[in-house]
Amino acid sequence: MGRMSRDYGSILLGSASERGVKQRVRIQILITGSIVVANSIGAVIAVVLASVGIPEPNVFQTRMWWINFIAVPVYVTFALLFGVLWGTIVVVRDLRWSIRDEKPTARDARKTRRAPWKLVMVQAVLWLLAAALATIAYGIYDPRLIPKVLFIVTFSGAVVVGISYLLVDFAMRPVLAEVINAGFSGRKRAGMRTRALISWLVGSGIPLTGILLVGLFKLIFDSLDGTSYLIAVTVLACIAIATGLLLTFLNTVSILGPIRSVQTGMNRVRAGKTDADVVVYDGTELGDLQVGFNTMVHGLRERERIRDLFGRHVGHDVAEAALASDPELGGVERTVAVVFVDVIGSTALAAEHPPTEVVTILNRFFAVIVHEVEEQRGLVNKFEGDAVLAIFGAPIDLDDPAGGALAASRQIAKRLAAEVPEISAGIGVGYGPVVAGNVGAIERFEFTVIGDPVNEAARLSELAKRDPSRPVASARAIDAASPGEAENWERQETVTLRGRSEGTLVYAALPETLVG
């Protein structure tokens, strides 16, 4: 999300981290500006309609000068000041919880959702009062002015209400987001329909009605000549174009804001970033879209967390293989290399150190092994108390599993001597065919390998305890490894390993390859 200008869809609304008085001042300025702009547009429309759009009957007669130049300006000034003052009082009262940076209650949430309508309705009341007073005042002097004045003031007021609704709804996004975040959604299921209806009504419906009324004025009063009628229709059409364009723009902005926030979040998810929650601030169906996106992202984050934990427990390669297919019990024959690392004197270690210290030492010991095994693309298959079983060549194929296992065993011996001097371990490397797959019950199983190389590696690790600084390996592992790795090992002796009847030719890592 990062960019302040995109938290609520506009830089004018500030950042989602903004709270308290600063946020309230920003909202109040936007609301006051919205009311002033909307009423100014309405006043301009009223003057244009009265003077040019519907010139006859004429409202600028000399005998009505006090209405035109005293009563109307005084009322407009009073109405504007009253609307701004009343709006300020409403906002401060209904958003007191936000100013104090408190969590809203259910009552606060209701009042906050109603605040935009209160602000808009007061504008409607003031313009309806203006329509009533103006109709009476002008009608006293010329009854023919009654329909003209009533239409002009009502139409101008409708424009003000429509613009005010969209602008105030926009300005209230930050506090509405806090209400929704607190669990009080209360979304209007027909909110987008309401916005579209207001845009059509004020931008097209009422101006077209005005054109029809001008035609009726001409027919009934016969006071408009052809030129005046053409001018009136043209002015009304131009007003319809201007107000329709403005309201369509405001309605489009209110729709695009939430959509773009979701679009930005989707781009972040596509880039692999699951911290892409969007601020839910829209009170219509688009708010449901924002909530749905956040729900999806939360699910992705949970999935990645489980995937990561799964990979840490069984190995990332095993986890990926399990997620890519439907795992089943049983296995397949593979030729692998096996590394077995067994701690020397674990009983003495536990006796000489507190349990917490033993765990810390073992974790350092295991960290070295895991790092070096994964460097060679092997799999740490099991932690068996103070021993480790690592596999090279399953579940993913390797070009040189024996070479990887031998290289990893040398690096493990080198690093353990330098980084974990408290522990000595025998390291054995075996090689040959095994059955690799899932073993257990359908309700609970694990990936493992079963075969002679596993036993061979374990027995060789016991042999290596005579000189833990040098890993040992079977001749089969050396023969299968690449020449570059095989030359790092030297022939030792032929040993009959426990559980075998035949001798096993043993190799040990060259001392010079274990230094540095």
Q: Your description of this structure?
A:
The chain is α+β, with helices and mostly antiparallel strands. 63% of the residues lie in helices and 13% in strands. It is built from 16 helices and eight strands. Strands 1, 2, 3, 4, 5, 6, 7 and 8 form an eight-stranded mixed β-sheet that branches. β2 (379-384) and β3 form a beta hairpin. α5 (145-171) runs antiparallel to α7. The longest helix has 45 residues, at 226-270. The two termini are 47 Å apart.
Topology:
Layout: H1 20-53, H2 65-94, H3 96-99, H4 106-141, H5 145-171, H6 173-181, H7 191-221, H8 226-270, H9 285-314, H10 316-324, E1 330-344, H11 346-352, H12 355-375, E2 379-384, E3 387-392, H13 401-419, E4 424-441, E5 444-450, H14 452-464, E6 472-474, H15 475-480, H16 483-486, E7 489-495, E8 504-509
Parallel strand pairs: 4-6
Antiparallel strand pairs: 1-3, 1-4, 2-3, 4-5, 6-8, 7-8
What descriptive keywords fit this protein?
516 residues; alpha+beta; eight-stranded mixed beta sheet; 8 strands; 63% helix; disordered N terminus
Continuous helix count = 16
Sheet with the most strands, sense and barrel status: 8 strands, mixed
- Which structural class do you get from the secondary structure elements? alpha+beta
What's the overall geometry? rod-shaped
Unreliable stretches, pLDDT < 50, 5 or more residues?
Answer: 1-5
Helix percent reads: 55-70%
Residue-averaged pLDDT: 79
What amount of the residues lies in strands? 5-15%
Rg (C-alpha, Å) = 40 Å
Distance between the termini: 47 Å
Q: Topology as H/E string?
A: HHHHHHHHHHEHHEEHEEHEHHEE
Count of β-strands: 8
